[in-house]
Amino acid sequence: MRTFLFISVFTTAIFLSGNFNNQVSGIAISRADTTNLPPVETQSPNTDYKPAFAGQTRISGVKTTTPYKVEKIATDIGRPWAIVPLPDGRFLVTDKTGFMQIFTVNGVLLKKITGFPVVDDGGQGGMLDVVPDPGFAQNKTIYWSYSEEYGRGNLMAVAKGQLSADETSIKNPVVIFRATPELRSKAHYGSRMLFDKNGNLFVSTGERSNSEGRRQSQWLSSGLGKIFRITKDGKAAPGNPFLNTKDAMPEIYAYGIRNAQSLDIHPVTGELWEAEFGPRGGDELNIIKPGKNYGWPIITYGLEYSGSKIGDAIQQKAGMEQPVYYWDPVLSPAGMVFYTGNAIPEWKNNLFITGLSSMHIARLVIVNNKVVGEERLLEDKRERFRDVAYTNGMLYAVTDNGSMYRISKK
Ligand SMILES: [Ca+2]
After folding, report:
1. 307 Cα: distance to centroid of ligand 1 (angstroms)
2. pLDDT of 114-143, one tens digit each?
3. Which end of the chain is more exposed for a tag (fewer CB within 10 A), N or C?
4. Is beta strand 99-103 parallel, antiparallel or unpaired with respect to 109-113?
5. Active-site positions?
6. Cβ–Cβ under 8 Å, residues 376 and 400
7. 12-67, pLDDT tens digit by residue?
8. Strands laid side by side in the 127-132 sheet
9. Residue 345 to residues 20, 37, 68, 149, 408: CA-CA distances in angstroms?
10. What spacing in Å lies between the alpha carbon of 93 and ligand 1's midpoint?
11. How far, rounded to the nearest angstrom, does the alpha carbon of residue 67 sit from its chain's CA centroid?
């Protein structure tokens, strides 16, 4: 372990000094791949908080050297919230107002899918994420998350159903999971979903952006501010960390989350990565491990929107996980994906995160679970980037203005 740590620090130091010619964890970094620039963030931070380790924020800037092109391949497609590849290469795009659409790889609209249970469309709520069943090609089953009027308030729910033969409606929709309890709020529903290698669903949610939900993000008896792992029927997945904990929701996988709208699995390590909205400052990138506490609202690198301090204004605490990386001012991370192809070689295994208020897509170079470089893409578009997908060496992104972009090797 000591040798491993030494190598990690040593290679990172070489990288930062600009003397790149290393093979780290199978990820080649050569001089031609990246440049070593000042941090991309130049604004003053909201706080004077110090990072827990070097490189936890404002890492060196990098710049893509392989020529690539950015095409706006569709406009005015509605209010897209998620863009997800289907096994046949088409894209399924959710619309916040309560339906979905299918597009070709060239951004041509093929189908509009309706008939979903009513969504509570307002504020940050509505139709949210979607994920096809691993056997979608045969069973046409999809899972989606949305905000639902429930009881005396609303909450984030997960449902499943099958596309009709003509792919214009949803059949047999059934709610399989609810992030209870309901509160009355229009914010912080999360959510992203993805399958793990065993066919269980990871689902993220938020703490509903009020004082009650904020407190409950630390409670194992509450479904607010959590990462869940559930079966295709919405039950607690086998092996979940709190199956035998008294009064805990057995679906919980990790807790102490503020509002997580980004999830993906690292293509090399297989670990679950998550990005979440911080308050004023303190957006986070985390590696989610079972049973761990990610600290909200006890530890945070941000302030209240009013500028006042949160809790005891501490950033580290024993028993609570540190983010791999954080942003102050914020990125507003809404969706993310690892680039797994070779078309743009220096992007291999990089993480791309869409920014809403920051209006760009952040490219993060990651080595040994540390961020070692950051770049801003599509800054000139001045759009709120809502989600990003990877397919066949290319990135696809959708925006709150209803634009769809394709980024590919030139
Ligand atoms: Ca945290």
Report:
1. 19
2. 999 999 999 999 999 999 999 999 999 999
3. N
4. antiparallel
5. 188
6. no
7. 333 433 333 333 443 444 444 556 899 999 999 999 999 999 999 999 999 999 99
8. 127-132, 141-150, 153-163, 170-178
9. 15, 19, 11, 46, 12
10. 29
11. 27
Specify the residue for token string 């209006």: 359
Q: How far is the CA of 217 from the centre of ligand 1 (A)?
A: 11
Question: Burial of 184 by CB count in 10 Å (0-12 exposed, 13-18 middle, 19+ buried)?
Answer: exposed
Amino acid identity of 73? I
Cα-to-centroid distance, 291 and ligand 1 (Å): 14
